[in-house]
Write a structure and sequence with these properties.
Layout: H1 2-16, E1 22-24, E2 32-37, H2 44-62, E3 67-69, E4 82-86, H3 93-110
Antiparallel strand pairs: 1-2, 2-4, 3-4
C-alpha cells in the first residue's frame, strides 16, 4: 500500500506541476498536497474567497473534492491560504488525472489576471 501511495503522490505532483497561477508548496512525499496562489490579491479574505470558489466549482463541475484552507487567529503557525488535496493508496490513476485537469482548467479560468 505504501508503494501505491507514493506512486499516487508522484502522479498528482506531476499533474499539478505546471498549474498556472499556483504553486505546490508541500513536501513532495506527503499525502497532503498543498497548492497556494503565486500572487496574492493582497487580502487573505479575497484570496480565500477565490480558492473557495475554485473548490466549489471543482466539486460541482468535476466531482473533485478539494479543501480550501482557512486561517484562524488562534493558529500559532500562519500558513498561507491555499487548496489541500489528500492522496490515498485507494485512488486510481484516473481519479488523480481528473483532479489535476480540473484544477488546471479552473486555475486558468479564475486566475487570468
Amino acid at each position: 500500500m505504501l508503494v501505491k501511495l507514493k506512486q499516487n503522490i508522484a502522479l498528482l505532483w506531476k499533474g499539478l506541476s505546471d498549474i498556472k497561477g499556483m504553486s505546490l508548496t508541500s513536501n513532495p512525499e506527503s499525502p497532503i498536497v498543498f497548492l497556494k496562489l503565486e500572487k496574492s490579491s493582497g487580502s487573505a479574505k479575497e484570496d480565500l474567497l477565490l480558492l473557495e470558489k475554485m473548490a466549489d466549482l471543482a466539486l460541482k463541475e468535476d466531482s473533485v473534492l478539494v479543501v480550501s484552507s482557512k486561517r484562524s487567529f488562534l493558529d500559532k503557525c500562519r500558513l498561507p491560504v491555499g487548496i489541500k488535496l489528500y492522496v490515498s493508496a485507494g485512488h486510481i490513476e484516473s481519479d488523480l488525472l481528473i483532479a489535476s485537469e480540473s484544477l488546471k482548467r479552473l486555475a486558468s479560468e479564475l486566475l487570468k489576471s
